[in-house]
Amino acid sequence: MSIRLGSSFYLYLSGGIVLLLAAILFKPFTIVNPGERGVIMHLGEVQDQILNEGFHPVLPIYTSIKKMSVKVKKVDVAVKVGTKDLQTLDVMTSVNWHIEPNKVNRVYQQIGDDRQVREIIVTPAISEVLKAATPQRTAEEILKQRSSLKDEIERSLKPRLAKYGIQVDDVSLINIGFSPEFTKSIEQKQIAEQDAKKAEYEALKASRQAQAEVNRAKGTAEAQKLLRQSLNKELLEKQAIEKWDGKFPTVMGGNGALPLINISPPQK
């Protein structure tokens, strides 16, 4: 009896081990991690259903799962482009993008995995959009209108990638490299503009100073004119009387008359 029980135990144990090994080998389940979606394939055929994050049972051999990241990714693209004034620029652009979660099955079916999406679709699209945007502007306009160029690139890139199930999150112009000759010409132009502004300021300052001198001269002349018009014999005598301290001068005139003041009462 004990022998039979022992045999049954080992039989069950062996069966459990076989099932465990089969589960490990064939894996009748899958786990979709955060930031991923699962593309379901039945014997290699992509299905419409998409697995969200979490644990999912699957039928081994018949069903296979391809996990696709839907997290935001960044790609940097360096492109040599031309401008309207025939300058050559080195533009470094950074684009944040992600695969739309509800379209991962079609993206995988039509393009492939994340690496293939980046290399086949995203990077070439960025390059083409840049090459189309810069020839519409001169090098100086690109230098001064950097944000405008960035917005134009973003507006053009979004619909271009959206048809592939790729969402553009953000576009940044990391660096714009100009030729040494153009950089030197810009510096010389800035110096010339600063000198012109300085000369204009000095001329305006001199003009205002001259006008101020003219105004002061006019004011002085007008005051003297008014003073001459207001002076008469009665006013001068009044001012002399107001300033007289009541003492007669010790020095008399040649004819014995007092200067300035007529102290004799008027004759009737």
> Helices and strands, in N-to-C order?
HEEEEEEEHHHHEHH
Biggest sheet: strands, sense, closure?
3 strands, antiparallel
Helix amount: 40-55%
Strand order within the widest beta sheet = 3-2-5
Distance between the termini: 175 Å
The counted number of beta strands is 8
Compute the gyration radius: what is it? 49 Å
Bin the strand percentage.
15-25%
The parts where pLDDT drops under 50 for at least 5 residues are: none
How many helical stretches? 7
Q: Which structural class best describes the helix and strand composition? A: alpha+beta
Based on the structure, what is the oligomeric state of the protein chains?
single chain
Spatial shape: elongated
Average per-residue pLDDT, rounded, comes to 79
Kindly describe this structure:
The protein has 268 residues and is of the alpha+beta class. It contains seven helices and eight strands. The chain has helices at residues 2-26, 104-110, 114-133, 139-144, 146-162, 180-230, 233-243; strands at residues 29-32, 36-42, 45-51, 54-57, 63-69, 73-82, 88-99, 166-177. Helix 3 crosses helix 5. The chain starts with a helix and ends in a 25-residue tail after the last helix.
Write the layout of secondary structure elements.
Blueprint: H1 2-26, E1 29-32, E2 36-42, E3 45-51, E4 54-57, E5 63-69, E6 73-82, E7 88-99, H2 104-110, H3 114-133, H4 139-144, H5 146-162, E8 166-177, H6 180-230, H7 233-243
Helix pairs in contact: 3-5
Give structural attributes.
single chain, alpha+beta, three-stranded antiparallel sheet, 7 helices, 8 strands, elongated
